[in-house]
TrEMBL record:
Gene3D superfamilies: Isopropylmalate Dehydrogenase. Homodimer. GO terms for biological process: pyridoxal phosphate biosynthetic process; pyridoxine biosynthetic process. Pathway: Cofactor biosynthesis; pyridoxine 5'-phosphate biosynthesis; pyridoxine 5'-phosphate from D-erythrose 4-phosphate: step 4/5. The gene is pdxA. This is 4-hydroxythreonine-4-phosphate dehydrogenase. Its cofactor is a divalent metal cation. Its EC number is 1.1.1.262. GO terms for cellular component: cytoplasm.
Length: 343
């Protein structure tokens, strides 16, 4: 069992072999701050990672691990790899994802989830995938989150985007703006608040302060600009407060973020994608982290896609990958200190 004095093992999934994942992983794993706080175990493809290391000029040697995890005393300059695929050159061609690559992505994610559930690793950080390629391989999921929800038996989950200055969670995610008002229901808002509270309390800060945004400008201005804030969001906030959650709202989005960034709140519950992602990416475009709340495991991810226009050039920024690994390690440390090794 891990203790607070040991460095947690974080599974790092390689993602799309034709994108920037292998390169940003290689760049991230030579960063001393990463190796100071965790033992990364990469789940990926040997030759693809070797190519990524060469492209970025990283001083890394791959050590393959069929079983087990990296030792407590890890060797500097070593990338510990569990190789789960043997991709052909055609399946590694930059910016040309294939079904075989999609199958490989699925294997990396599935293995990481199983390792988390078994307790062999403390959490997982994921590089970007190509959802279409994974679907072509027969795995019909919109993305990481839905696959991980199925693998862990999770029904209710929340997307959180986070950086040092701001954390946002979303009631609705990838939906047409015209559909958002009908999707913002009392139960969905309340569930999002509860999951946000529970996992922030578990992994980040005891008794977190949560701001809940209005859907409409000026909280609907007494019904002039819409009634959802008074009819739906306000009662949900009141129900959360009755549960002992420190939630405030509905609050007007045009002013709230100023106070959140000043430190008045630990997270902001947003009603739709752009309401939360515009301010988050304004502040954390390069180092934002996508965290899936509600799962029984720790999962963080880069907050960007496969970046095919940069693949193979060695110029893609590793900052989001570094931030994702560091956040997973910090969450694991907090969980271990508070709950032992319980998930």
């Amino acid at each position: 069992m891990e203790t607070s004095s040991t460095k947690p093992v974080i599974a790092v999934t390689m993602g799309d072999p034709t994108g920037v994942g292998p390169e940003i992983i290689a760049k991230a794993l030579i960063r001393p701050e990463v190796n100071a706080v965790c033992r990364p175990l990469v789940l990926g493809d040997m030759e693809t990672l070797e190519r990524g290391i060469k492209i970025v000029g990283a001083q890394l040697r791959i050590e393959t691990m069929g079983t087990g995890v990296p030792p407590e005393a890890t060797t500097p300059g070593v990338l510990y790899l569990r190789s789960l695929s043997d991709l052909s050159p055609a399946d590694r061609e930059f910016a040309k994802p294939t079904a075989a690559g999609g199958e490989a992505m699925f294997r990396y994610i599935t293995e990481a989830a199983h390792l988390c559930l078994s307790g062999d690793v403390a959490g997982m950080a994921t590089a970007p995938i190509n959802k279409e390629a994974m679907n072509r391989a027969g795995h019909k999921y919109p993305g990481h989150t839905e696959l991980l929800a199925e693998l862990t038996g999770t029904r209710d989950f929340v997307m959180m985007l986070a950086g040092d200055r701001l954390r946002v969670t979303l009631v609705t995610i990838h939906e047409a703006l015209a559909d958002v008002p009908r999707l913002v229901t009392h139960d969905k808002v309340l569930s999002t608040i509860r999951i946000t509270h529970r996992d922030l309390h578990r992994y980040f800060r005891a008794n977190p302060r949560i701001a809940v945004l209005a859907l409409n400008p000026h909280c609907g201005e007494g019904g002039m600009f819409g009634t959802e804030d008074d009819r739906i969001i306000k009662p949900a906030v009141e129900a959360a407060r009755a549960d002992g959650i420190d939630a405030s709202g509905p609050l007007s989005a045009d002013t709230l973020f100023h106070f959140a960034v000043q430190g008045d709140y630990d997270a902001v519950v947003c009603m739709y994608h752009d309401q939360g992602l515009i301010p988050l990416k304004l502040l954390h475009f390069d180092d934002g982290v996508n965290v899936t709340l509600g799962l029984p495991i720790i999962r963080t991810s880069v907050d960007h896609g496969t970046a095919y226009n940069l693949a193979g050039k060695g110029t893609a920024s590793e900052r989001s990958m570094v931030a994702a690994i560091l956040m997973a390690a910090e969450m694991a440390k907090q969980r271990i200190e508070t709950y032992g090794n319980a998930t």
